[in-house]
Amino acid sequence: MRYALLLLVLALPLQADQLIEQQLPDFYQQLLPAQHYPLSWQPARFNDIQHWRAQGRAALREALLWPDEPVDFAASLLKTEVRDGYSAQLWSVQLTKQSRVQLMLLQPDVAKPVPALLLLHDHGARFDIGKEKWLKPFAGDPRQASAQQWADKYFSGNFVGDALARQGYLVVAADTFGWSERGPLEFKAQQALAANMFMLGRSLAGMAAYEDIRLLQFIKQLPQADSTRLAVLGFSMGAFRAWQLAALTDDIKAGVAIAWLNSYRHLITPGNNILKGQSAFYMLHPGLAAKLDIADIASLAAPKAMLFINGGQDNLMPKAGVELAYQQLAKVWQAHGAAEQLTTSLYPQYGHEFNAEQQQQVFSWLATQLAGGARD
Hints:
- Helix 7 (204-220) packs across helix 8.
- The protein folds into 2 domains: 2-31, no CATH class; 49-369, Rossmann fold (3-Layer(aba) Sandwich).
- The N and C termini lie far apart (69 Å).
- The longest helix has 19 residues, at 13-31.
- By secondary structure, it is α/β, with parallel strands linked by helices.
- The protein has helices spanning 2-11, 13-31, 49-63, 144-154, 160-166, 187-199, 204-220, 237-248, 264-267, 294-298, 319-335, 356-369, and strands at 76-83, 86-94, 100-108, 114-120, 170-174, 225-235, 254-258, 305-311, 342-347.
- It is 38% helix and 18% strand.
- The protein has a 9-stranded mixed sheet with strand order 1-2-3-5-4-6-7-8-9, sandwiched between helices.
- The chain has 12 helices and 9 strands.
- Keywords: Hydrolase, Signal.
- Residues 1-16 form the signal peptide.
């Protein structure tokens, strides 16, 4: 049988590749838990929701394969630009022993500490821009055209971070490894990096997650940020990172995740990006999918305030998987006695985007959750 398959691969490489691509999802599906994930919230198996959360969070943190190695941020200001009601600042910050990064900070023109937002950018197969997907680049920056193209494609032409700064929030965005000033690191290089990290007992997804933790810690210690009113907002891959960060730390008061939530069973299907390796490694933690489904991980953020937004026409996030995930989230927030802290929205007419209508929903929701911290 194996010899026959080998002959098929040698004789008809294209057809064999297609055959294997069709067969592999079935193989993967058989490896998933048949009914309930071992660490999924189920009242019949876990009597105490807090104990369940502690177990799940420990499993997630362990899966990062990244030790807690705090270093001095040694932050230095590189550039400042005055804008309408706020200033844009470029900082150089030491996040980990391996990573010194540049981040943009938008500072409102007020003297008192204000609520702060960490914005986490998407993947999008566009590597010349990262933080610039959220924030308007500095005058003269050669990435201005690329950033505007991205805003036009996904954000109704808006730079969401600048809109939030005008509302009175302190806003921070940085490049994930591989994007903008930390790139470009394209598909084959991403897969090579991920493979070698596994060899060394680390993971690319864990590196990205730990850097997000450190970014939040950097914001928390800023004197101009109200550390009791920190929030995270992410789109696409950034949404994955947003609910992941909310699950990993209690420093966040509120989180918003747009266009990345589903179930493994619905994603492990022919043609889905999660099966292609390469970029998927930013979101794959070794062994975690055998213990927790995607919604289980996201629900570790409970009982804090969370807003999830998805589009019914999003080809990357099957609608059935989104609805199943929303059901599981609701069970966990209810178990915490905090059902009112969870908001889930499925826009049936929209695809993979964060458009002006959805932005208005997020702006209103954040103003409520952060208790009047933003100006009207």
